[in-house]
Amino acid sequence: MDRQSRPHSSQSDSAGIIAAVTPAYNEEHNLGEVAASMFSQTLKPITWIIVDDGSSDGTFALARKLAESRAWVTLIKKERDVGIHDASFKAFEFGVSNLKSDWKYLMKLDADTKLPPSFLEKVVEKFESEETLGIASGVCAGEPGVSSHPRGNNRVYRRECWEHVRFPESGLGWDTVDEVFARLNGWQTKAFSDLVCAHMRSKLPDAKYRFHQGRLSRYLGYYWWFVLGRSAKMLSHSGIRPSLAYLGGHLKGGLGSADERTKQAVRMDQRNRIARIMRLE
């Protein structure tokens, strides 16, 4: 493991409240803009770890310059994993394992996502004003979303909630599984529409990405009626190809199966969501 870092300088108490980790794989063309948005934050993080996940372009060299420019930025180089897994999550997990500063909130910021200047300040304010808020995010400009589903590319965790959630060992479906266990443990999960991020490499309209999402739904044990409902919603905002690709991916499967505890938790959460929609609770 190659590591580039500088000693931390003293920052205000408020700056020590949040840590950020960014997995980066071949993001040479986006990482600079992401860093500019982080450097312009009105509330700086106590630390920002960039994990280069075996990039073959200039990502590592750029990240090294960024780490040299700020005392609170650290670069870690990770060998890329092989096998069936979620590479972005595994790199994030690796970065979290290398956090040395204490933190109250933890952010996963993808290397293709630019933040508005007051993002960190405002998201901390939301956590501080809602004691049951466990996972939060902003929204991505021009992309559909669900208010109870924080976006995975700019997701922030309260530490106490982080300690309640669990993740698949492979990372597959991590951004469903974590919020399922958060909600089942009494935490709220929210995507805030007033925190608008710029997603520079969105995959939502891509049929291959939706096919993979369908396979993940099979892996996580989604109810068939939930899959159909999600496909119908996808049809309304993304068109027929992504919708059919999602259904095709679910039918195809092939990723194996999550453990029984995870599948049961996912299904219980889906039942709870439908009950809330139908006002049965």
In short:
The protein is α/β, with parallel strands linked by helices and 281 residues long. The protein has 10 helices and 9 strands.
User: How many individual domains?
Assistant: 2
* Model regions low in confidence, pLDDT < 50 over at least 5 residues: 1-15
Provide the CATH superfamily of the largest domain: Spore Coat Polysaccharide Biosynthesis Protein SpsA, Chain A
Order of helices and strands: EEHEHEHEEHEEHHEHHHH
CATH class (first level) name of the largest domain: Alpha Beta
Q: Please state the structural category.
A: alpha/beta
Q: Determine the strand fraction and express it as a percent band.
A: 15-25%
Largest sheet: 9 strands, mixed
- Chain-averaged pLDDT: 91
Number of helices: 10
CATH architecture of the largest domain: Alpha-Beta Complex
